[in-house]
Amino acid sequence: MIIQFRTVVDRYQSKIKTMKTKNLIVTAMVSAGLAFGVAAQGHEKEKEQSLSSADVPAAVQKAAETQAKGGKIVRWEKEGANYEAVIDKNGRQWGVEMDASGKVLSKHDESKEHKGKGEKY
Asked: Which H or E run includes 74?
């Protein structure tokens, strides 16, 4: 009888240790996911900086004017080492990202970008 009791107790303690380990791993993974998510959002906010056209290099301005054919440059932003011209063309706003030499790196629909952030332009 005593041997059976010890066997049952040992099994029970083994299950408790297994459950504690699983709970600890799950808690650590959820915490890490939340922490990285908050850090990524904080980094996104600090990357854009508004500029006046006087602060933008001539090569970048010339490249943006070429991209804005038939449209108007509404504002300038600096994102890290790159510049972004926001162009109002045919009733839509387009973001054109360029490096400091004026090379076009990417183009995107600015309204979609700001809709996701809850901003309106």
From this structure: strand 72-79
Distance (Å, whole) CA 86 – CA 93: 6
Give the residue carrying structure tokens 């006046």: 52
Structure tokens at 30: 């959820």
The domain ranges of the chain are 1-46, 50-117
Q: Does domain 50-117 have CATH number 4.10.40?
A: no
CB 59 within 8 A of CB 101: yes
pLDDT tens per residue across span 15-34: 666 667 777 788 888 888 88
Q: 117: which 2 tokens? A: 């952030």
Torsion angle defined by CA atoms of residues 17, 23, 28 and 33, in that order, rounded to the nearest 10 degrees: 160
